[in-house]
Each structure stands twice: as C-alpha cells, then as structure tokens.
Backbone:
C-alpha cells in the first residue's frame, strides 16, 4: 500500500530542531510513498506542520465538543477535499496507539477480516480517538453477521462504519436502522456511553443523539454483481452517507484476474463509472483502497475522494526491507560484497549477495501484501 513521503526521524522537542530542515524533502502526498514515520515528541505539532505543508484538511476542525463523541466524519467527507486513511490490522491497542500518532485523517479497523471481538474493537476505537487527540477518525468495517458491534463501536466514538456486501436497498435500510436513533433508525439508547457533564457537552439546541446521527458516516460497500445492479436504489436510501467500493471482490465476481484489486478491462471500468454516476446523482462520497499512485488517478477520475493508502502490516514489511537495504549499502557498498571478505561474502547471509537478500525480502513483503488481498469469501 501507499502512504506519505518517507520522513527522517525527528525529535521535535529537541532544542534547535527545524522541521523543514530535518525533513529529507518537502512533505507531500503527491508521490504517495510511505515507509515509516517516527514521532518521538509533540505529535500534534508535527501533524499541524504536515497539514500546512500539504494543505490537508484538519480533522480537529470537525471534532465534537468532547472526544467521547464522534468527530463529524460526514462533514469531512463532504468538504470537497481528499481524505487519506491508514489501517490497523494488528489486533492490539499498542498497535492502535502507534497508528494514532501518524498524520492520517482516519484509521480503517476491519472487523470483517481481522479477529476483533467486541471488547478489543471498542478498545481500538477509543485508542485511536483519544491517543490521536481527535486528529484521526476511527472508521470500522463490520460484517452483517455481527450487528451488535455497530452499537458498541458507535458508542465508543467511531466516526464512521461500513457494512460489506450490500446488495440491495433493503439491506442498506437495515444498516441505517442499526446506526441511527429513532425515528430514522432503531439504535438503542446507550447507557453510560457518555459520562458526566463534560462528555455530554453539545452545541446549543442539540442533544448527544443529534450529534451521533449528524456526525457518523454510514457507508454501503459495493462489491457484488447484485450490488452493482442495484447501486442506484442503494444510493437513494435515506441515511446512507457514502459508498465503499470493494474492487477485489467486484473483480472476482466479474471473473477478472483473481486476487487483483485494479485493472483496465472495459467491463470493470464501466462498473466503476456506473457506481460513480449513482453516487454523484445522490451527492455521496466514494471511498476505497488507493492501491498505487497509478491506480489512484483512475480512482480520482471515478469520483473517489477518500482513500486507504497505508497499513501497519505493510509499513513494517516495507520499512524492514528499506532499512536493511539502506544500512547494508552504507556498510558494504551497493555490490553487497564485504571488503576483504572471502568469496564475496555479504553482511546478511554470509554467502548471498545483497541482490539475493533484497530479492528474498521483497518476496516476504509481497507475501504480506498478498495476505491482505481478498480471497473468494472476503472484501475488498
């Protein structure tokens, strides 16, 4: 996956630190290439500087009056600006705490494909919300077979939810009812979700239920032939706030390049255009995986404005490969041979050249990436 420009390790709290000087180059999302970001101190200052450099939307401008309440993700999505997301697949709050220090607008938590029980999922949502100080919106994918999770994550402060494999208007209506309070939906009163006067603060004339209903973005994931066929009626369902396109499952349904997430086949491009036209006619944003800078441009042309471009697992694999390559090059030269070594011995394997090592690590990274791609029963 992709992300932002590779940054040097910066301790912003160090006297004399000049962030513009210490960046390896001007921070920009134009090339969308992330290895890793280390925020040693003052992540809020780092984020504000990055947003100034990239003219990125500031999530803090959309916060509710308490972090216990959801950020207005719906308004962010309708701001006319691109939103950039990361993903947290490692099922542990410590992973979420680290992700929360990165400068993305939202974090994708996938309860469809990751082993996230209710308690852990609520913990991840709250960790993202509080450890980012409201700078990152928790966005959660929950399968239809676990409807109770919707009330849990919304009560914990998630700013958006998406249900995979929405195939018709009836299913979209059921999703809306799970997420909205009466009269629009059937969401139950959540006792003790908000505690005390500070957590219950709201704008004059609004209740906390008004904030929940007006801030939380409800997405339908389109990734089946039936969903594609019915996308216009899905978009017209009141309370649906956006579409999430699962290109992997959609392409498999079309019998196109098993396991692929992008392509240029006419039937596939026609499907994306149909979804774009339906969303545009109903003023709905479109979200999905950015995949690569080349694929990103097609997605922008197809009306997408929110992109998941990074994830914790891919970042670890990419950073490991880049770090080993950088340091072995520095120590032993680009040919990978140890000075004075016998028979061309190299640092890493003793018998293999650096090219061999780089190839081996590249295979590890590609294996990790392929593990995040869809299987026949998964999405995207």
Residues:
């Amino acid at each position: 996956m992709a992300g932002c420009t590779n940054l040097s390790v910066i301790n912003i709290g160090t006297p004399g630190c000049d962030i513009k000087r210490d960046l390896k180059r001007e921070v920009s999302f134009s090339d969308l290439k992330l290895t890793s970001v280390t925020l040693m101190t003052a992540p809020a200052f780092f984020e504000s500087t990055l947003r100034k450099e990239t003219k990125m939307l500031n999530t803090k401008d959309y916060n509710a009056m308490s972090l216990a309440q959801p950020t207005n993700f719906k308004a962010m999505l309708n701001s006319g600006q691109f939103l950039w997301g990361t993903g947290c697949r490692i099922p542990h709050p410590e992973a979420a705490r680290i992700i929360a220090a990165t400068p993305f607008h939202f974090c994708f938590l996938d309860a469809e494909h990751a082993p996230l029980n209710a308690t852990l999922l609520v913990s991840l949502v709250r960790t993202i919300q509080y450890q980012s100080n409201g700078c990152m919106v928790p966005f959660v994918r929950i399968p239809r077979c676990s409807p109770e999770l919707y009330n849990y994550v919304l009560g914990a402060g998630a700013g958006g939810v998406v249900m995979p494999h929405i195939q018709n208007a009836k299913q979209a209506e059921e999703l809306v009812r799970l997420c909205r309070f009466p009269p629009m939906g059937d969401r139950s009163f959540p006792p003790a979700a908000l505690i005390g006067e500070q957590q219950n603060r709201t704008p004059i004339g609004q209740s906390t239920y008004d904030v929940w209903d007006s801030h939380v973005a409800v997405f339908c994931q389109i990734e089946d032939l039936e969903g594609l066929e019915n996308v216009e009626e899905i978009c017209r369902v009141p309370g649906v706030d956006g579409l999430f396109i699962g290109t992997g499952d959609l392409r498999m349904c079309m019998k196109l390049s098993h396991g692929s997430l992008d392509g240029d086949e006419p039937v596939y491009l026609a499907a994306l255009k149909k979804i774009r036209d339906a969303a545009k006619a109903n003023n709905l944003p479109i979200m999905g995986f950015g995949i690569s800078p080349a694929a990103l441009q097609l997605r922008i042309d197809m009306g997408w404005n929110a992109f998941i471009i990074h994830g914790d697992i891919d970042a670890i694999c990419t950073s490991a490969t880049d770090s080993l390559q950088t340091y072995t090059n520095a120590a032993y030269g680009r040919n990978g041979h140890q000075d004075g070594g016998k028979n061309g011995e190299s640092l890493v394997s003793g018998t293999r050249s650096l090219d061999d090592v780089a190839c081996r690590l590249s295979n590890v990274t590609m294996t990790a990436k392929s593990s995040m791609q869809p299987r026949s029963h998964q999405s995207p």
Residues 312-332 form the longest helix (21 residues). Residues 1-43, 340-354, 364-380 have pLDDT under 50 and may be disordered.
